[in-house]
């Protein structure tokens, strides 16, 4: 017992010391690669776009408890980089689709503090688990409001688009107007600045000082939509990157791009990432959406998708190599076997496709694929309706509202897929998990385990200390508990 008490005192002293000494490092780009400190940083990550929305759930089992359970699951798999939506714009139907929410910006210029607290909570819980977030500030697509909502607020597009689904050509014509709508861009940049400039109400850490955030992303899949918008599109990306850099010189900035399919031009894709304020290159890969799975036989279709995927990565990795910037494949997905949405169906073909994508992680003569984020985490959620279509009030899975729930989602029961993701984890991720003093704490706990069997270190909050001290100490107690 004396040894146990002594070790407990040592742990508390080390935890307290870590408040002022141990600081996680920011992810940086050096020589075309990600680094943290002097160590290379590669990652296997996920899309968890709804993470900030879970804190809004009044039912804690569907909200904060789900969030913690899923973060623990991902952390255990070595999936420590999450791409998340900062918040939605507007509410109700848009293009006939019920968008996600509650929104960050319900009306133009009006921001919901509770929505921002949801993002605070997500980042706070990720920080406890030594995870990194890529936060996208808006969306090209209607399912979270995005650029189209700004156009609606300014009266630039047909108001009937709230309730009816436009054709693809009409949608392109509509969203392309965003880049020449100055009030729209100003309203978007007001939201972006509000997010970037925020101080987390739980950790008391300013977002600009929090290494939990790896990068700010201008939007999810920003496209010019029409060639006539190309120049205005580039101006928007450059102006926004410059604004974010001025507000936050420490974090990385990227576009959220799909690759040259999004620009319909490799040259324009390169120009979009050549700005010195854009730190790395992103691509997304969608075989189903891009017509690569046309063959009714999914196994034959997969062979075609694999060939197209290899070519696509090679072309856009060459762009990243030319720019001497790392590339992240930050979205990719594939249907379940038989194109089923049922969680009981197998994922043999999806697993094969995931293995192909994950095999690109690393450095070649073309450049560096520094990270991959699969689409998307469904975790413990399940489709609520027989038709697999999401309705307001349903749990979020990884599939946005306009798609069948289960189309691309990876569920907690998809064990073969999760094994592949865990196996693909890079050694550098494990090496960067802990700062030095936290590592010492874990070492001391290991000695305790050896002497006294299974250690059970309860999380505790020190109420007679300043909040920032208590939060940090609580976080480190949690880390010690999770390591045992």
Average of per-residue pLDDT values: 88
What would you report as the Rg, rounded to the nearest angstrom?
22 Å
Give the biggest beta sheet: 9 strands, mixed
Q: Are there runs of 5+ residues with pLDDT below 50, and where?
A: 12-22, 430-484
Q: What is the CATH homology-level superfamily of the largest domain?
A: Glycosidases
Proportion in helices: 40-55%
The count of helical stretches stands at 15
Task: Produce the secondary structure layout.
Layout: H1 2-21, E1 27-30, E2 33-36, E3 39-40, E4 43-47, H2 64-77, E5 81-85, E6 93-94, E7 97-98, H3 113-128, E8 132-136, H4 146-153, H5 168-176, H6 182-196, E9 213-217, H7 230-247, E10 252-254, H8 260-263, H9 266-274, E11 281-285, H10 298-323, E12 327-332, H11 348-358, E13 362-363, E14 368-374, E15 377-379, E16 410-411, H12 415-423, H13 427-431, H14 436-452, H15 467-483
Parallel strand pairs: 4-5, 4-14, 5-8, 8-9, 9-10, 11-12, 12-14, 15-16
Antiparallel strand pairs: 1-2, 2-3, 6-7, 13-14
Descriptors for this entry?
16 strands; 484 residues; alpha/beta; three-stranded antiparallel sheet; disordered C terminus; globular; 2 domains; single chain; TIM Barrel
